[in-house]
Each structure stands twice: as C-alpha cells, then as structure tokens.
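Minutes, project check-in
Item: structure for the 117-residue chain
Input as provided by the requester:
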Amino acid sequence: MSVLLNFDDDARAGMLCYLVVGELVAMAITGDWLKTVHLVELARIRMSANSARCDWRERLAIVRAAADLAPEAQAAFKLATEKMLAPLSTDGWRLDYRQAVVREIHDMSASRMRHVK
C-alpha cells in the first residue's frame, strides 16, 4: 500500500519551526534539549494534527535539523524562560504566527530546509 505524501516546502518549514519551539520549551523547563525519540514523537503528533504525511526519512531529517537549529534560535532570540516562550503559542501548542519571533524562527526553518533534501 502506498501512502500519499503531501509534505511541501512550507509544511517542512512549519514542522521544523514547531520542533524548534518544542526544543526551546524543553530547554526552558528542564534545562535539557529533547531526546531524538521525543522529537520524533512531537513530529508525529504535529503531523497527525495537520493530516500531514511524509516519508520517515524526511521526518528524521527534519528532526535532526531541529536539534541543530534550536540552539541557534535560542542564541539569536534569547528565549530561555517559559515566560518568554509562552506568547509564541496559542490554543495550546499552535504557534502564533502573529508573533514576530515565530515568523523569524519559521524563516530560519525555511532557509535550513532548503539545504536539507
């Protein structure tokens, strides 16, 4: 059985942005970055919520990119506390793209995904 893949460039960047913010939240709360297994699960949850489908290798590449990009985003935007990160999401775990920082992380993510194929 084949699976219809519907992951375009914007979906990849959105996934990476979401995972990077997840990494930032984990660091703020626990003092540690997420383990790969937790990033994979976070990606699965987001894909399920958005009815997205992609190849597992592509998903793993995005997870790896998130692990690399999160420290860069943390340094660039100085997002180190829960209080600083809270405005980045709305309705639970939906990112609030009205926030400039979210848009900038998304732009960083889109740029990074152009190099990950």
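Outcome recorded: The two ends are 24 Å apart (CA to CA).
No further action items on this chain.
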